[in-house]
Each structure stands twice: as structure tokens, then as C-alpha cells.
Amino acid sequence: MARTMAEPDRLDSLVERLERTAAELRTGELTTERAASLVDDCARLASEAGAELDRRVRAADAGPGVAGQLALES
Predict the structure, then answer these.
(1) Would you state the pLDDT for residue 7?
(2) How many CB atoms neighbour CB 45 within 10 A?
(3) Neighbours of 2 (CB within 10 A)
(4) Burial of 40 (0-12, 13-18, 19+ CB in 10 A)
(5) Among 4, 9, 42, 44, which is least packed, fewest CB within 10 Å?
(6) What pLDDT score was predicted for residue 66?
(7) What is the 3-state secondary structure (H, E, C) of the chain?
């Protein structure tokens, strides 16, 4: 999938948010409610990242001619 440098990478953004959320969970200095909320956030972010990966795989499987993709030359 071709991207311009200015276009943010959604997957990278999701991974960064997931890492920050997990790091906050690892501090161990959270209330039970806050920890539960962060666990929910981690699950949601992981689900979004999985959906993004699935979207990319389906786009790659669609082959050349898909908007935003470059055809491979032999």
C-alpha cells in the first residue's frame, strides 16, 4: 500500500496508543476502576489494530488496480 509521508499510518498510531496504555497499566499505581478502564482500552485498541491489519491483507489480496496501491513490475 502506497502512502505519502504526510499521511499518518493508522496502524502505527494504534500500536503507539496500545503501548502507552499498557505502560500505564504496568505502573501498578492505579485504582481498580482505572485499571479496568485501561484493560478495556487495550482490548479496543488491539481490536482496531487487528481490523486494520485485516483490511491491509484484503487490499493486498485484491491485487493491482486497487486505489492507493502500485503495481509490481516484472
Answers:
(1) 45
(2) 20
(3) 8
(4) exposed
(5) 4
(6) 52
(7) CCCCCCCCCHHHHHHHHHHHHHHHHHCCCCCHHHHHHHHHHHHHHHHHHHHHHHHHHHHHHCCCCCCCCCCCCC
CB atoms within 10 A of CB 67: 8
23: amino acid identity, one letter: A
What is the pTM for the complete model shown?
0.69
Gap between the Cα atoms of 40 and 26, Å rounded: 15
Give the pLDDT confidence of 20-33 residue by residue, as tens digits.
Answer: 999 999 998 999 99
- pLDDT above 70 covers a percentage of the chain that reads 74
Left if phi > 0, otherwise alpha if psi is -120 to 50, otherwise beta: which for 30?
beta
